[in-house]
Amino acid sequence: MTNYGMVIDQERCIGCQACAVSCKQENNVPMGQFWNRVLTEGGDSVDTPSGGYPEDGGSGSLDMQYQPTACQHCENAPCVKVCPVNATYTRDDGIVEIDYDKCIGCRYCMAACPYNARVFNWDEPEHVPEGGTGDVSARPQGVVEKCTFCSHRVEEGLDPACVVNCPADARIFGDLDDESSTVSKYIDEYETNQLLEDRGTNPKTHYISGEMSPGRPQTSDKLESELDDVSPWSDGADDVPSDADASEGGQSGGGQHAIDGDAVPHVPSVKSGGDD
Ligand code: SF4
Ligand code: SF4
In sequence order, which residues have a C-beta less than 8 Å from that of residue 275 and are 6 or more positions away? Predict the structure, then answer.
């Protein structure tokens, strides 16, 4: 059975906040709310290093580490257990979602979530522009909301917006129950951890730290299967334009790029399955 999850490579993350911004845009998240936040290990504010500044000719110990955080879509989700009206539930594909029509705003789920992943609409949601953004309708005042792994996109075979828009390829999404999926291969190949493992929630977001993964280029907002047709990793040699093709066409544009193997910035050591 499909069981969606995510890998976030903290060594790749550059703290650019593109994931947080694209999440807000795609999911029509109201002003003052964030479903996806990029924390820094040194403190609560943005871009706060940990450690100490150099003093008295010493080298100091300043260190900047980013930890993108959103709903972890826990296997054993405490928020689901405490919801008195079953408004919070786990879908068959493992995504934890909220039925906004059922939510009575009791906020038990917010208290139960150890990851501070949920936000509450105290006021009438305010959107800029007024009509809202993205492909998700606004949630009413008085309900709790949070990251959905962009389930509306996943249902169309697309990756979540944060994954597509991460310029550092720090995020990978896919089926944890499929051992041939890219997420499964990354978890298999790299040292990963889950947040607050001792709570027994079994989060489906896995973090890589210590060793940078090769990344997985998210070249556009397209289906993986479509990307296979133009990818330098696809098997068909005919897919890769030749130098002659490139010179005939002059400068590439409109999404038609001549792909030169040497120009690819990083080639994954785990082959992209194109299946997640
Ligand atoms: S978009 Fe990628 S690199 Fe930028 S903060 Fe988010 S995870 Fe890190
Ligand atoms: S991270 Fe919080 S909101 Fe998300 S499934 Fe786990 S307990 Fe629920």
Answer: 174, 175, 178, 180, 181, 182, 224
- For residues 5 and 75, what is the distance between their CA atoms, to the nearest angstrom? 10
Convert the pLDDT of each residue in 186-214 to its tens digit. 899 899 999 999 999 999 999 998 888 88
Q: Residue 46 is encoded by which pair of tokens?
A: 């943005």
Q: How far is the CA of 180 from the centre of ligand 2 (A)?
A: 26
What does DSSP assign to residue 197?
Answer: G
Q: How far apart are CA 71 and CA 8, in angstroms?
A: 13
Using most ligand atoms within 8 A of CB, pick from 98, 146, 151, 199 the residue to mutate for ligand 2.
146
217 falls in which pLDDT band (50, 70, 90)?
low
Q: How far apart are the first and last CA of the chain?
A: 13
Give the CA dihedral 136, 204, 220, 178, nearest 10 degrees: -120
Residue 97 CA, distance from chain mean position: 16
Block residue for tokens 């949630």: 139
pTM over 0.85: no
CB atoms within 10 A of CB 208: 23
List, for residues 108-144, the tens digit of each pLDDT value.
999 999 999 999 999 999 999 998 999 899 999 999 9
Q: pLDDT class for 218, splitting at 50, 70, 90?
A: low
Tokens of 255: 């999404």
Please state the rounded mean pLDDT for residues 92-104: 98
Task: Give the residues surrounding ligand 2 with Cβ less than 6 Å away.
Answer: 71-74, 77-79, 96, 113, 115, 117-118, 146, 201
Mean pLDDT of the chain: 82
Q: Quick check: CB of 40 below 6 Å from ligand 1? A: no
